[in-house]
Amino acid sequence: MFSSYRLPWNKFKPHAWIPVRLAHITRLSDLFQPLSIAPTNQDNSGKTDDAVSRSQKLLLETGMVSPGSAPGTFNLHPLFMRSVEKLTKLIDDELRTIRCQKISLPSLQDASMWKSTNRWSLMGSEMLKFQDRLERHCCLGPTSEEAVTSLVATHMHNASYKKFPLRLYQIGPKFRDEMKPKYGLLRAREFIMKDLYTFDTSEENAKISYDAVVSAYENLFARLQVPFVKAEASSGAMGGTKSHEFLLPCESLGEDTLRVCTKCGATFNAEIKANQGAACSACSSTTELDTVKAIEVAHSFLLGTQYSRKLGANFVGQDGKSNSLVMGCFGIGVTRLIAACIEVISSGDRIRWPLAISPYGICVITPKAGSKEASAGGLLAMQAAVKLDQLPQGNGEVVVDDRDDLTIGRRLKDAQKSGYPMIVVVGKTALDEVPKIEMHYQEGDQDRSMILSLDELLDLFRAEEPALDSTNNDPNSVRL
Amino acid sequence: MFSSYRLPWNKFKPHAWIPVRLAHITRLSDLFQPLSIAPTNQDNSGKTDDAVSRSQKLLLETGMVSPGSAPGTFNLHPLFMRSVEKLTKLIDDELRTIRCQKISLPSLQDASMWKSTNRWSLMGSEMLKFQDRLERHCCLGPTSEEAVTSLVATHMHNASYKKFPLRLYQIGPKFRDEMKPKYGLLRAREFIMKDLYTFDTSEENAKISYDAVVSAYENLFARLQVPFVKAEASSGAMGGTKSHEFLLPCESLGEDTLRVCTKCGATFNAEIKANQGAACSACSSTTELDTVKAIEVAHSFLLGTQYSRKLGANFVGQDGKSNSLVMGCFGIGVTRLIAACIEVISSGDRIRWPLAISPYGICVITPKAGSKEASAGGLLAMQAAVKLDQLPQGNGEVVVDDRDDLTIGRRLKDAQKSGYPMIVVVGKTALDEVPKIEMHYQEGDQDRSMILSLDELLDLFRAEEPALDSTNNDPNSVRL
């Protein structure tokens, strides 16, 4: 009866995708990765400065990013883009889990709504302001409290309390005309930010949203496997009643100073702790507070009703009365977080990526052109690359360094500097009776290697769980 | 020997993702989709205008987008974002197939490079220009020929001819201060664009890149299953030697006029055909040329060396000599293309999406609250949603309309207006001895429906191929 009906999508035949996949294994000879960008810190005056951060130096020298035409802006190159896309997916996954919905608000914003919250003048020259062709005052959004609150005020005007919580977020470019852009992506004037806004019907419900987001942040940092600190912070210019910062401890470069209670571990931004005396406000201990330097990568604010009141974002409660929505706002500096991870977990001369956002998991190095093993080893290397890519554990995670006019040693060094977690080298041992492959990786600060047949290498991978789940973490294909 | 070694990613255990997936089926009661936005055309003066396009009306009325604070800007809501993300993946896939590499260039650009190509004055007030806090002249990139050519000139200065072709693209916001923003996303001031730039070592090689991109575009339109036209066009302000436009024919709204040879089918933009007389320049026929109106959604330009010469993007050839790289540039208006598809394939009162970029493939409507079938039918509906979502053919493609204070008839109408290709309704027939489900879909302009048991429904889906490939087209998980 229904067998004659074809679902509409059957009419579409995807063009053969399996051969395409294999052809898709990236080769470094094709890759845009200029390996010799001299790192200089470009401050806002356009002058250069010696104070270059470790992440900036490594990301520039490995050709992952380069300075844009305007100070404090960066071109993101293909490898770095993969990391951005992987992190985006991790964030999407964590936020969808707590029922956040993805939207996109324009960067080009009208002055009027910023004036109604008084932030047009409060943000001052940190905001990029200008006039359009009809001389209307506009700005580039440094953040979107005004835009999202206006959106909800206009299109959910006096909606029923049943429609809340509402949790809206976006991931995209943000603009801040920093007085001193520095340390590369750690303080840029244009950067990628995730900004989330929650709308609830009471302070109590807003706290539930707040806690849900904080716990999603904790999951995210756990998945990145970076040491992070959550600190009670001041709400500052954002206003509101409760605020936390998420930071990566970093003695050399941390711009935030934290106070950590040696007894209960509670952590506070020094800004607020200075006001509260020496005793820990969590456990009331009067033992000394440790001081830690750290880089802020995310924050959370319980905003209350300050924006919803000014912009008229109301709901109708069970009692039939109209009230202001209670808001929270939550940011993650996406490009900043990647740079901060590199800053704190890398050694001075090579990048270490959090595994979940490493551009590729495995780099396969082919034999040098003209070497005895070039022919047999070249085939073996491609076979290894394709077979690793076909395993769920390596799928989409393989890149081949086929720059075979360079020695293996030079390419191994490049691969280590670029931070590939696993490096598979096909060299002289390709000519063994049972052809062998070298595998290099880091364990802690130690370089390790082992020599294996291709089957042994594949078995080793098969014994592991897939990178992130049952498929993989290729930004173009991952199921999170 | 190596079994004691654990790959580093094994240390990371993803938190249980299977329950999360099931919990992730979106419910319309949660979804931000304001269904009653009055469509008005907002021109650049801020005044409203009656000329509203069909896509604009439908996208506003179905709560897919809403106007931003500045004229000609739009908030993209969750359903529309899914469409954008699906289209992004299709584009990524087609471009990766021809070895394009994804990058991201800043929107914030310095005036100097625009001055060196003279486009600072050529683009005039269509470019959003301003000064930063140090009074340096900047703009928001309307396109990125200058930025990408500078990037290549700086970091691949006199690179070997072996490093080419180089094909770099990005997908992100672009800004044009249109005199008359109109028709919603068809002519906005901030919009999402894919821009691709190719670098080759000769005019001949540049043509190979050009043809590869044109064929990727053709694949893309074939996957969208929309009727498109490729027309020879004038290079205009962009300069260069060869140019094509990709357009969707649209009598009511097409701003481009095409001339089509009735004999050989060759198509030309009327701009260039006017200069070439009445004969077809492809087949030399002097029969009449048809006139067709159409909406431009993509373009391609063979630029030659005009940008590379001015900005010093050179390579070193086999002969050891330095020469200017030969460039092509290729745009797709991502948000514009979605709007244009809706414009041309929808009927006046309901959206029709290209299947490959429909926000969700299947909408499941639950029984009305308080109806006799509410209890048994509610369970059946959730069971249907979960089981459809578990099939590769429906995975990630299911949304549940659980707004059960509304009648089924009202929700069916909403679902049809929002354009879900398949609508599954659980109503009175849920109480049949073998509980039954209605399935509604469109075939051509006809509304069709059938009544099935859950098993029959699932078998029907199982008999089909997965939406786009062996996994699915959920923007958050698809393997393309």
Automatic annotation (TrEMBL), chains A, B:
**Catalytic activities:** tRNA(Pro) + L-proline + ATP = L-prolyl-tRNA(Pro) + AMP + diphosphate
A Pfam family that the UniProt record links to this protein:
HGTP_anticodon
Domain (Aminoacyl-transfer RNA synthetases class-II family profile): give its ranges.
50-354
Q: Which Gene3D superfamilies match?
A: Anticodon-binding domain, Bira Bifunctional Protein, Domain 2
Gene Ontology CC, one term: mitochondrion
GO MF assignments:
ATP binding; proline-tRNA ligase activity
| Any one Gene Ontology BP term | prolyl-tRNA aminoacylation
Enzyme category, top tier: ligase
PROSITE patterns noted in UniProt:
AA_TRNA_LIGASE_II
What keywords are assigned to this protein? Answer: Aminoacyl-tRNA synthetase, ATP-binding, Ligase, Nucleotide-binding, Protein biosynthesis
Q: Which SUPFAM superfamilies match?
A: Class II aaRS ABD-related (SSF52954), Class II aaRS and biotin synthetases (SSF55681)
Return the EC number: 6.1.1.15
Name of the protein in question = Probable proline--tRNA ligase, mitochondrial
Source organism of the structure: Hypsibius exemplaris
